[in-house]
Amino acid sequence: MNKKHKKLLAYIYVPITFTFLSYLVLGVLLSPFFEIVTSVAGMVAINQNVNYGDQTDSVLNLTDIHDGFIELKDLTLPNYGEHYAQLVIDRIELETPLYYGDDYALLRKGAGQYIGSVFPGFKGTTLIAGHNTRGLRPIRNAEVGDIVNLQTSYGNYEYKIYDIQLVHESEYALYLDLSQTKKDIIVMYTCYPFDGLVGLAKQRLFVYAEKVKGPTIIDGGVNE
User: Fold this and answer.
1) Pairing of strands 147-152, 203-213
2) Which residues form the active site (predicted)?
């Protein structure tokens, strides 16, 4: 191949190679953005009045137990990923399934309980997360005094909201106490603002509620 042909091929292949590498780098850099955009598109396409129907991973069988005590040995607790409760706040028309676990896949179905927190009925804190685009979206209208219902297979629980806090994502740990065992409370939280771009919200809305009704779970004796 003479020098003239080599020079011609260089003029052809060098720009093509450079263009390909440029698109490759650009694709890598923009992939997080495209993931956010597709997530938003998917959520916008979903009707806000989602009918979750019968979940194949559901262990929820509603009961009419509202008080008293339940022996831990008589209780079958859910496994990770199971739909074990229904979260309801009538005044703001919030109703969503509650799963044991809070990974991305579960939060696309409803609300999720952090597995490092206690189940309803134990003394301690039950931490519940949900997306602000679906499961916990109505919670933006919650007010102190609202009643939260948690309907589980082993009992129905009522909690009263006593505090609402808006905090930066880097400080949320300061507003949680998962080690306390004096009260039976739930903490629900979601991203804020509600109309911000998915994945870019830097604040968290925390809603705190304390149990006012529901059976207490005991282990070999009545907890004081």
Assistant:
1) unpaired
2) 131, 191
- Torsion sign (Cα): 102, 104, 105, 110: positive
Co-location of 34 and 85 in the same domain: no
Give the helix ranges, DSSP H, for the chain: 3-45, 104-107
Residue 111 and residue 21 share a domain: no
Extract the tokens encoding 144: 């102190």
By annotation, the residues acting in catalysis are 131, 191
User: What CA–CA distance (Å, rounded) separates 108 from 165?
Assistant: 24
The tokens of 69 are what?
A: 């005590």
Residues 6 or more apart whose CB falls under 8 angstroms from that of 155 comprise 63, 65, 66, 70, 120, 121, 214, 215
Distance from C-alpha of 134 to C-alpha of 48, rounded to nearest angstrom: 7
Cβ atoms of residues 186 and 120 within 8 Å: yes
Judge whether 98 and 52 are in contact, CB under 8 Å.
Answer: no
pLDDT per residue as tens digits for the range 48-72? 333 333 444 677 777 777 888 999 9
Residue 193 forms part of a structural domain: yes
Indicate if 190 and 101 belong to the same structural domain.
Answer: yes
Closest CA to 66 of 180, 172, 176, 213: 213
Domain of residue 14: give its range: 1-45
Distance (Å) of CA 126 to CA 10, 16, 117, 217: 65, 57, 5, 14
For 138, 143, 190, 199, 206, the CA distances from 169, given in Å and listed in that order, are: 20, 22, 10, 12, 11
How many domains does the chain contain in total?
2
